[in-house]
Amino acid sequence: MFNARRGDEPARLTVHEWREAITGTWIDPNLIERINDPMEKYLIDNLKFAYQAGKGSRKLVPVLFPKYTLEPVSKLLEERSNCNVAEDNIFLSPNTGLSIDHASG
Questions:
Q1: Domain count, the chain
Q2: What is the 3-state secondary structure (H, E, C) of 26-88?
Q3: DSSP state of 9
Q4: How large a percentage of the chain has pLDDT more than 70?
Q5: Is the Cβ–Cβ distance between 93 and 104 less than 8 Å?
C-alpha cells in the first residue's frame, strides 16, 4: 500500500477503510463498464483503493493497494489477537501492547 503525499497516512488507515477497499465500495460499476483505455483497465484490475481523511484537513486522500498485498494484509488481520493487539483497535497497522493507537511512520 502506498500514498504519494505522506508516508504516515497509510499507518492511520482503519480496518473499516481497508474493507471498503477490498469490497470496491468507492468504485462505480457503471463507470467501470465504460472504460476503454487499456491502462485504466489494467489499473482497475490490479489495484484496490480506499480513501481516508488527510492529516489536518477535510480532503480525502487515496490509498492504493496492489493486488499482491491483499492476501498478506488479510493474514495480518487474522493474527491480530495472537500479537497483543487490543480488540477495539480500529487501525489496520496497530500498535501492540493492547494499545488503541496506530503504528508510527
A1: 1
A2: CCCHHHHHCCCCHHHHHHHHHEEEEEEECCCCCCEEEEEEEHHHHHHHHHHHHCHHHHCCCCC
A3: G
A4: 89
A5: no
Which structural domain range is residue 53 located in? 9-67
Measured in degrees and rounded to the nearest 5, phi and psi for residue 54 equal -75, 160
For residue 29, tell me if it sits in a domain: yes
pTM reported for the whole predicted model: 0.78
Task: Report if residue 91 sits inside a domain.
Answer: no
Model confidence at 105: pLDDT above 70:
no
Query: For residue 2, what is its C-alpha cell?
Result: 502506498
Would you say residue 86 has pLDDT above 70? Answer: yes
77 in any annotated domain: no
Average pLDDT over every residue of 27-47 = 92
